[in-house]
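Researcher: Good morning. I'm working through a list of sequences from a screen, and I'd like to move beyond sequence-only analysis. For each chain I'm collecting a predicted structure so we can compare shapes side by side. This is the next one on the list. No need for commentary yet; just the structure.
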Amino acid sequence: MRKHFMLFTLAVGMLTCIQAQKKPLTAIAFGSCDNQYVQPKLWKEVNAVRPQLWIWGGDIVYGDTYNMDTLRHKYDVQKNQPGYRELLSYAAVTGVYDDHDYGLNDGGSEYERRRESRDILLDFLGIPAADAIRKREGGYSSMIYGPQGRQVKVINLDTRYFRDALERETYTNANGQSESRYKRIPGRDILGEAQWQWLENELRSKAAITIINSSIQLIASDHRFEKWANFPSAQQRFYDLVAASGQEGVFVISGDRHIAELSSLQLPGMKYPLYDITSSGMTHTWPAYREEPNANRTGKLVAQKNFGVIHIDWSGKKPKVSVEIQGNNNAVFAKFPLDLNK
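Model: Good morning. C-alpha cells for this chain:
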C-alpha cells in the first residue's frame, strides 16, 4: 500500500509540476513546524486557499533521532494526513528540512546521519532517484514555475548540512535575569562553498520573482535563538550576493521560530528592501504572547498557529506581491505588501 501511494503521489506531483509550467502562479502557500502527531491541523485552511504551490519551510516533522527507520516513519505519518494528501492531489510541493526533521535540534554538519536524513527528505518530496540533486551533498534545490515572462523561481537553501557549530554564552537580559543565547561568531559558515557558488548562479535568472526559502531567520538579529546573525560573515555574504545579483523580485521566507513576522532591510546597492517573511508554528506556537525585540520588524508579531500565503498579481507590467499570515478558519492575522521592483 505504501509503495502504491508513493507512486501515486509521485505521478500527481509530476503532473502538477507540468501544469505549473503552463499557468502563472497566483497563490503560493508556505509553512513550517508541523508536528506529525499534533491535532488539529491547518490543512483544511490551506486547502481552502487552493494554492498552486506549497513550500515547506522546515520542521516538516519532529524526528529528533539517529534512527532512520523512525525518521522515515514520521515522514510517512505526515504524508498520510488526509488534508496533506488532498493538497498533493492538486498542488506542486517543494521545500527543505530544518533541524527537527533533519534529526538533531539546532544541528549542523556534526549530525552523523545527515546523508541518510537528506535522502529521506528527498523521498518525502517525491524527488526522482535519478535527479541530479541526489548526486551531490546537501538538500538544497531550485524549481521554476510558470510560463516565460511570468516565472517564479523557488530556491531552497540547506542551512543544516554544511553549517559550522553554534556556541552559547550567558548574558543578563533586560529584567536583570541570567539567560543563555547563541553567540555571534565571525568567520563561521552556514551554506558551505559549493552551495554558495550554486546560489550565486541561481540568482542569475530571468524569473520575475525569486523566493529564497531559508529555514532559519535571515534578518531578525536581536533574539537569543538560532539565526543567520549568529554567523555574521555568512549573513553579510548573503546580503552582498543578493544585492550584487541585480535581480528584481527577490525575497526570503523562513520558519523555525513558532511565530510569524515580517523583517526587512535596505541593502546598499539594492533598489528595493530585502524582505524575510517568517511563518512558523502550524501545530504549535508560544504558550503565551511575549514581546521580542526585532529592530527590523515591520508590523506586528503573530503568535497564533499560522501559515503564509503569497498572492501574485500579474495584471500590470510588473508583478505585485503581497503576503498574508493566516490561521484557524482562514483568519488573516497580518498582511504585508512587498515592494520588489527597481
